[in-house]
Amino acid sequence: MKYQLFTKMLTGLAIALTIGTAATEPSAAQSKKFFCGRSDGEPATVVRTSKGNVPIIIWVDLGFEALGWTPQRRCQAVSDRFQ
């Protein structure tokens, strides 16, 4: 008898936790958290936070341009991967 009650309580708790977790996950319709933006005129990987947008990487190194990776292209590629 106690085993059945325990099983029912455990199942109810698992369902409640699953519903609570699913409700807090961002939907696909929400905007991206990471994006390629600008900081002081330079391409920058930016993160969107509750306190505003914060640049986390500013792409200024030109060392990869010979390989076709401009700062703008690297910014876009890395920002998309962070997402």
What key phrases describe this protein's structure?
single chain; 83 residues; alpha+beta; three-stranded antiparallel β-sheet; 3 strands; globular
What does this protein look like?
The chain is α+β, with helices and mostly antiparallel strands. The chain has one domain (2-82). It contains two helices and three strands; from the N terminus they run αβββα. A three-stranded antiparallel sheet has the order 1-2-3, with helices on one face.
| Rg, nearest Å | 22 Å
Q: Give the helix level as a range of percent.
A: 40-55%
- The strand count comes to 3
Q: What is the strand content?
A: 25-35%
Number of domains: 1
Q: What would the principal axes of the Cα set say about the shape?
A: globular
Largest β-sheet summary: 3 strands, antiparallel
Contiguous helical run count: 2
End-to-end distance, in Å?
49 Å
Strand ordering within the main sheet: 1-2-3
The helix/strand class is alpha+beta
What's the average pLDDT? 77
* Poorly predicted runs of 5 or more residues: 5-14, 16-25
Q: List the secondary-structure elements in sequence, H or E.
A: HEEEH
List the helices and strands and how they pair.
Blueprint: H1 2-24, E1 34-39, E2 42-49, E3 52-58, H2 71-82
Antiparallel strand pairs: 1-2, 2-3
